[in-house]
């Protein structure tokens, strides 16, 4: 393989990683609108990066064996989880006396990371069918999504200080809208 072909493949994977990571940025922006400490932001970014490694890896491995029917199912599940998180955040913003049902800590972080990375499972299915380089692909996807998540969370945190009590409702609305967009692409 010549240098131009390798650079072309790297550029293609980077563009795909940026496209997949933009959902992590958007959702990170929404989640950043709730009060998060720097350590939580670090863990959230790392967790989403890890999910963006193993979800496309699982997709690539399965994609080499099965059809891409599961891509649609993964997208619908991811959209449904984001809608659930978004609705929960909007309702929690109006009930300040209660703790949110799902927060980006522990199991809530796993649900959050899973909902953001399910679309990368679909992409992994396609890449597995076409025989893409597995290690390079998942490392690029993981690093790009981790960095974009951190950027989204930090921007969201900055905006949260400006919006005050409305920031959690706005963050929930962003997650809700993104979940609807995943289920009903328009």
Q: How can the largest sheet be summarized?
A: none
How would you sum up the global shape?
Answer: globular
**How many domains make up the 3D coordinates?**
1
N-to-C span: 38 Å
SSE succession? HHHHHH
Question: What does this protein look like?
Answer:
By secondary structure, this protein is an all-alpha fold. It has one domain. It is built from six helices and no strands. It has helices spanning 3-31, 38-63, 69-94, 107-130, 134-163, 167-183. Helix 2 packs parallel to helix 4 (107-130). The protein is globular.
Feature tags:
transport; 6 helices; transmembrane; manganese; globular; transmembrane helix; mainly alpha; 186 residues
In a few lines, what is going on in this structure?
With 186 residues, the protein is mostly helical. The chain contains 6 helices and no strands.
List the helices and strands and how they pair.
Blueprint: H1 3-31, H2 38-63, H3 69-94, H4 107-130, H5 134-163, H6 167-183
């Amino acid at each position: 393989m010549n240098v131009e072909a390798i650079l072309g493949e790297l550029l293609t994977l980077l563009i795909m990683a940026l496209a997949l990571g933009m959902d992590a940025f958007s959702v990170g922006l929404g989640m950043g609108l709730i009060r998060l400490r720097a350590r939580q932001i670090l863990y959230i970014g790392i967790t989403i990066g890890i999910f963006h490694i193993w979800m496309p890896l699982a997709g690539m491995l399965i994609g080499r064996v099965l059809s891409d029917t599961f891509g649609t199912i993964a997208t619908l599940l991811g959209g449904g989880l984001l809608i659930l998180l978004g609705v929960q955040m909007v309702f929690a913003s109006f009930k300040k006396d209660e703790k949110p049902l799902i927060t980006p800590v522990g199991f809530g972080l796993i649900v959050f990371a899973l909902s953001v990375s399910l679309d990368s499972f679909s992409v992994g299915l396609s890449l597995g069918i076409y025989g893409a380089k597995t290690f390079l692909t998942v490392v690029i996807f993981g690093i790009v999504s981790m960095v974009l998540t951190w950027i989204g969370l930090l921007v969201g945190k900055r905006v949260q200080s400006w919006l005050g009590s409305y920031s959690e409702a706005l963050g929930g609305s962003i997650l809700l809208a993104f979940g609807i967009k995943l289920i009903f692409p328009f």
